Amino acid sequence: MTTPDRPGFVLPLLLLAGFRTLVDDLHAELARQGHPDLRPAHGFVLQAVGPAGTTASDLGQRLGVSKQAAGKTVDRLVALGYLERVDDPADARRKLVRVTAKGRDGLHRSAAVFDQLRGRWAATLGADRVTAIEDDLRRMVPADVFRLDVPGWFGG
Q: Which residues form the HTH marR-type domain (predicted)?
């Protein structure tokens, strides 16, 4: 039940603001740790490429964007050294996109920084409260919450 002091639209705005705060803090720290060019969408791309690599077409499908949009992002991440294009051993006509050592370092550091940020939230709100928030969100969010198509979803 909503009340005038807690209208329903505030909840998604607060959830988004919490997400944005965590992501902004993450990227500020990644910049300090030697990854100033990583952007929020890049994390989704690196995750979607996965440890085995993928094609640009499959990457576009995973992200919910066109092959061309995925290719443009891949071009940028290749230029920055986070991804590489290699021949597909199963089909010489295709290229695979793979995460480089620099990309893996960015992902590893991201995971560590997110752990630190969670710790900061726990220090401010209390560890039990942060755990309760996570548990409550798990109850409310569909099982496929960790879809990687957020860039496509935001793009309309």
A: 8-142
d(CA 129, CA 153): 30
Query: Is 4 part of any domain?
Result: no
Into how many domains does the chain fold?
1
Q: Which of 28, 62, 50 is nearest to 97 (CA)?
A: 50
For 69, the domain range is 10-155
For the segment 17-36, the average pLDDT, to the nearest whole number, is 97
Question: Is 79 part of a structural domain of the chain?
Answer: yes
* pTM, full prediction: 0.86
List 84's β-bridge partners, or say none: 98
Is residue 73 a contact partner of residue 46, using CB atoms and an 8 Å limit?
A: no
Cβ atoms of 110 and 129 within 8 Å: the answer is no
Kindly report the CATH number assigned to the domain that includes residue 77. 1.10.10.10
Closest CA to 46 of 77, 23, 76: 77
Token couple for 76: 């940028």
Give the pLDDT band of residue 154 (cuts 50, 70, 90): low
